[in-house]
Amino acid sequence: MKHKVATTVNGRRHEHEVEPRLLLVHHLRDNLGLTGTHIGCDTSQCGACTILVDGQAVKSCTMFAVQAEGRSLTTIEGMAKDGQLHPIQQAFWDEHGLQCGYCTPGFIMAAAYLLAQNPNPTEDEIRRGLEGNLCRCTGYVNIVKAVQTAARTMGGTEAKPSERTAARRS
Amino acid sequence: MAVTTMIGAKIHRREDPRLITGHGRYIDDMTRPGMAHMVVVRSPHAHAKIRSIDPSSAKKAAGVHAVYTYADFKDHISGGLPVSASFVAEKKQVPNQFPIAHDEVVYQGEPVAVVLADERSQAADAASLVQVEYDPLPAVMDIEKAMEKGSPTVHSGAPDNIGWELTYSPDSPEAFQEADVVVKERILQQRLFPIAIETRGVVAEYDNYDKRLTLWTSSQIPHFIRLFVGTACGLAESQVRVIAGPDVGGGFGSKIRPYPEEYLASIASKLANRPVKWIEGRSENLVATTHGRGQIFDIEVGAKKDGTLVALKVTQYLDIGGYQGVFGAFQAVACLLAGGAYKWKHIAARTVGVLTNKTSTDPYRGAGRPEATHLVERAVDLVAREIGMDPVDVRRKNFATEFPFTNNFGLVYDSGNYGGSLDKALELANYKDLRREQEALRKQGRYLGIGLSTWIEICGLGPSAATAPAAGVALVEASQVRIHPTGGVSVYVGTHSHGQSHDTTFAQIVADTLGVPYDSIDMRHGDTAEGPAFGYGTYGSRSLAVGGMSIRMSCLKVIDKAKRLAAHILEADEGDMVFDQGRFHVKGSPEKAKTLGEVAFASYGAGLPEGMEQGLEAVSYFDPPNFTWPFGAHICVVEVDPETGAVDMRKYVAVDDCGNVINPMVVEGQIAGGIVQGIAQALFEEVVYDDESGQLRTGTLIDYMIPTANEIPELVLGSTLTPSPTNALGVKGIGEAGTIASSAAVINAIVDALSPFGIKHVDMPATPDRLWKQIKEARS
What we know:
The structure holds two protein chains of two kinds.
Chain A: E1 3-9, E2 12-18, H1 24-31, E3 50-53, E4 56-59, E5 72-74, H2 87-94, H3 104-117, H4 123-129, H5 141-155, H6 163-169
Parallel strand pairs in A: 1-5
Antiparallel strand pairs in A: 1-2, 3-4, 3-5
Chain B: H1 16-20, E1 36-42, E2 48-54, H2 56-60, E3 64-69, H3 70-73, E4 104-105, E5 111-117, H4 120-127, E6 131-136, H5 143-147, E7 162-169, H6 173-177, E8 181-192, E9 201-207, E10 212-217, H7 222-232, E11 240-244, H8 260-272, E12 276-279, H9 282-288, E13 292-303, E14 309-321, H10 333-336, E15 346-355, H11 369-387, H12 391-398, E16 405-406, E17 412-413, H13 418-429, H14 431-443, E18 447-456, H15 464-471, E19 477-483, E20 489-493, H16 502-514, E21 521-525, H17 543-569, E22 577-580, E23 583-586, E24 589-595, H18 596-603, E25 617-622, E26 631-640, E27 647-657, H19 664-683, E28 715-719, H20 737-754, H21 768-779
Parallel strand pairs in B: 1-12, 10-11, 14-15, 20-21, 27-28
Antiparallel strand pairs in B: 1-5, 2-4, 2-6, 3-5, 7-15, 8-13, 9-10, 9-12, 13-14, 16-17, 18-26, 19-20, 19-25, 22-23, 23-24, 26-27
C-alpha cells in the first residue's frame, strides 16, 4: 500500500505516493530526480547521502521517505542560490577539497550543519564533526581546510581572496 | 597574455563546478527509457557444486521481466574473462572464468543468476526467490595450507592450487657469504578492499535492430572494456560504444578490468530487448569487486657491519583468489622492485601465486610497489637494528647515486636524488630533535617511534618494448587534437580521469603548447565513440607521463602543419616562421602575425599550399622510451601506549619528487590521499575470511575500518624536483606514490617505538589488540 508524502525540498513543495519501505535517499534520487545525493554504502557508514532535514544533517539512507512527511529538506542542489555558490561549495573548490567528487555532496551538507552549530570550529572539532563521512581520495586534508576557509568566509572575517580567479587571470 | 605559465600553476579544477553542486553524472544517475534493473544472485558459499537453480517463483514476482542463468548466457558469450601475462608470462593454472557460474562456485559472491525487473527493489525481492541448491565443498582459504600436498583444491578436479611459480633470479649462497649479519623475517601484506566510494555500476543498451551495444560503466579503461566485452559478445568494436562514466567516483585499481556484470548486463539487454542497469551495493562490492594485496613475503637480508647492504632473498606468496585476476600477476612486480632505492650485490626473488576460494586479487593503488617498499624498508631497518646503526645512515650508505641506475633485474631508474629528498624530510621532521625527545620520553616510560620510508616506484606504464611482453599489451597512449574553424580546441585522450583532475592539468599542457586560451580547450575522455581508435586507460600513474606526452605530441603536429600554412599565407619561407604563444610570424616581424585560430580558419578553406589537405587536427600514439621513477622520503612519528597498544600518530612528513609538476595543488592532493590510504593499511584495514566456512567476516563497512577525518594527523608535505629525462615534459607520476611510501613509514615508526621491548617486527594492521598482545608477550 502506498502512502502519501509531502515534503518541501530546496524550497519547493512535492507530493508523492510512495511505498512505505522506500528510503528517503531513493525518494530524492528516483522520484524527485535529485541525483546529487549519492549512495556509497548500505550500512549508513559513508555519509555520501547526507542532507539537511529541518536544518539537521541526516544520512538520508537512515530515514524512510514517509518519515519526511511535512519536513523541509535541503539537498546539495539547494545550496547554490541565484547562480552563486554557497560559501562551503566555493571553499571546496578553492581548497581542492575533492577529487572524484562522489563523497563531496555529503561532506558539503555535513559541513553546512557543522558550521550552523559551531561557526568557529577548531580543527579537531571539524575532524570530529565530519567523522560520519568517508572520503577515499583526499585523505581529508583539503576537506578540513575547505571547512576552515568556509568558516572564515561565512563569518565575514578574513575572507580569503579566491585563488581560482587569481590563477585564471594570471 | 601570460598563458605560457599555465604549466606549473595552481589552477583550480574545471571539473569541480558540476561536482560541488550535485550535477556530476555518475552511472547511477542515469536512466534510459524502458530500462530494467538487474540484480545479481550470488553464491553464499566459498566453494560448492550447484545442484539446481529454480527461477520459477522469481519469474512470477511483481515487475519481473526475466531471470537468466548460465544456460541463457552460454551461447552469447564466448570464452571468459581475460587474464593478462603481466609479470608472469607462464602460469601453471588459469581457470576459465565465465561471467556466470555453470555448475561450481569458487568464491562467495560468484554470480549464479540475474533478475531483471522494472524497479530495483522488485529485482532484489525476486532475487531472494531464486532457489539455488548447493552441495558445499571444502573451502581453501589459507595460502600456506593451499600449497600443501593433498590440500583440497579450489576447483574440483584441479591438480593443485598453484597458479604460478616463477623464479626471477636464483638464490646465491655466495652473495650471503660476504655478509656479517643475516636477518630473516616474514612480512604479511593483508588483503584489502579498494573501496572507491562509488561502487561499480553498468547501464547496457543493446539495439537489436542496429546490432549496436552502448555500455556505460564505472571503469578506468573504456577501450579495453569495448575490446573484451565486445569480442566475447560477438560484436566488432564498431558496434560497441563504451562510456566510462561520464563521471567515475574513484577507482584505485579496482576498475581497471572487465567484470562479469559488464558481460551479463550487455547480454541481458540483448535478450530482454531493453536497457539494463546494474548498480553494485556496498556489501555486494566487498565480494564482487577485486581485492588488493593478500601476500606473504619471506625475506632474508645480508649486510656488512658497516651497514653495506649485500644480499636480499625474497619469496612472495600471493593469494590469487578463485580465479586469476585480470592483471593480478602485475603484483609480482614487488619482486623486481624489492631492492628499492639501494645498491645490492645480489637479489634472489621468487613469486608463487596460490589459488584460494576467495574474491580475486588485482591491482590496488600501488599494486606490487607498496609491497616492495614495505619489505625493503623493513629489511633496511632490520639491518640497522642488528648492527646498531641509525636507519638514516644505513639508507644513505646504500642509496643508488648514479643515474640512470640499472637495478638487479635490469630495470633502469631514469633519475633520482634519494639523498636530497631524505635530507629535506629529516629537516622538516627535525629528526635530531625527535631522537633526543625519544630518548627523554623513554626514561619516563613513554614510547615514541620514528619511521622512515625512502621509497621509489616504477610508473608511467610504459614502453611498448617492455609492456608488450610483460603485460601482453603495449601500453602506449593515444590522443587527438582538433582545432575547429573558429579556433576552439577539442582534445581527446585515451586515459581516464576518475578523480585525477586530467581535464584541468591536460588543458594546462595544451594551453601552453598551443598558446591558446585555457578556456577555449575542451578536454574529452572516456567515450570510445570519440577521438582515436584506442585508448589504454588510467592505472600505474601513467596518465601524465604517457597520455600527457601524447597530447603534447598531437599539439606539435598541429603546430607543424599550421606553420606551413601560415608561411603560405604570409608569403614567407617556412624556415623563417616563428611560433610564439599561439601566433605565427616571420622572423623579425612580430607585428604581422597570424593566430592559430586564423590559420585554423584558413585551413578549412581554399587556396592551401600545393598538396596540403584541408583541416587542422592530429592523432598521436606516444610510446615512451622507459618507465618513469618517482621517489621520496617519508617520516612518520608515533607514540605507542604500551598499556593499550594504541598508536597516536603525532606527525607525518612526506617529501616527494615526481619530476616537473603541472599543477602543484593536484599533486599535493594526490600525495595526501595516497598517504592516508597507506596509513589505513598500516593501522586499520584488513579483509577477514573465516578459515573454516570461507565466509567473509568483514562483509560491510561496519566491520571494515576505513579511516575518517578523525583518525588522520596533519600531514607536512615537501618536495624536491628532479626532472625525468624520459619525456619532454620531464614528468613522472604521483597517483600512487603516497600509498607506496606510507605503510612502511608507519610500521617502521611503531617498531622503533617498541624496540625497547625487543620487538623487531609488527604486521599490519597494527591494531591496538595486536600490539597489546605483542607487547605483553615481549614483556613476559
